[in-house]
Amino acid sequence: MLQFVQELRALVAPLSAAEFAQHRVLCLAVEKLFINLGEAAYRVDTSRAQ
Known about the structure:
By secondary structure, the protein is mainly α. The protein has three helices and no strands. It has helices spanning 2-12, 17-21, 24-42. Helix 1 packs antiparallel against helix 3.
């Protein structure tokens, strides 16, 4: 999960919101990384966290 977050930050950090919105492929890549992050978070076994 940390790797997904690091990748997301690296992709969008240098851009303003307007610049980001103008790059369709980048938007799709970020969307996919968020999907992957959500799926990874869903698989975390919370019963072992306690």
